[in-house]
Structure of Extensin:
Amino acid sequence: MVTVALGLSLAPAEARKYAAPLDLFGFGLPRPRGTVHPARIPAKIPLPRPRPEDAPKEVAKPAPERPAVEEKLAADKPAEPTAPPAKQASACRLALTEEIAIAPSVPDIHGPGSCGGQDLVRLEAIVLPDKRKVQVKPAAILRCGMASAIANWVRSDMAPLAASLGSTISDLDNFDSFECRGRNRIVGAMLSEHGRANALDVRAFKLANGQSIGLTDRTVPRELRERVLHSVCARFSTVLGPGSDWYHEDHIHLDLMQRRNDYRICQWNVWDPLPQVAPLLPTERPEEAPPREVAAKSGETNEGAEQGDAAKSGTPQPDEPAGAGQTPRKPATKKRR
Ligand SMILES: [Zn+2]
């Protein structure tokens, strides 16, 4: 009886350990359903026990993340319209006061392409030390550094020059400032400094007495133009004028392009007054003149020479004289580099 009683008492204990007599791998999953009270099922489904461990962490993480994202978004949205005023003024901007120039800041320009610039101003006038203003006509869009350089040049060099003529400067004839284009308006060429708002083309200064100083005007005394030449070449890293190429016969290009080793370009041939150049028209070649090398070779080389000359006219020739034969090229000399 005892053994029987033990056998009966052990049977349920073993049944609890093993779901089924043949279930060697513990696959008797249905067993708990029968042993668990229905009341416990709803308590286990929500899984309150594992969640509390992770819950505080999960809740704590998104809490700071969400506000951070919202803050970023919130900061970005108002930043667009308020960017210019909120921007910290550059040292140049702070230095370019209304005592030096009337040059309000304008929004940055981005593109197209690599065109554009930051810290831009609209240079409307330069204020001379005696408080008189030199109007920039039309107002020039320039980087602050370039505008400042122009203002300093006019104030320190051009104003005394005008004073030596017994007058003061009233206007600066701005031929071109910011313009998104390649050098010399050649498509595909390197971006002009004009495209970076780092260049100004100056054609002339007008004086209060009505006189005009055309920087490339041959009727303006040569000495005067040379003084301007020395002035700008000391102040700007690039100066291109008559004789530099075929695009700067009627204005002076100034920019502050930075090159390796501070390399500078100063190419401005101050031509003699017209009366001395005009007689340099081609004259008939004297028969007794020694033969030219090209002409002496054969008749074919004459054609070659002419083609060569024609080719030269289409490409910038820094040492090309602007005298004879320039007339037909004039249409191409407007507002280049
Ligand atoms: Zn230019």
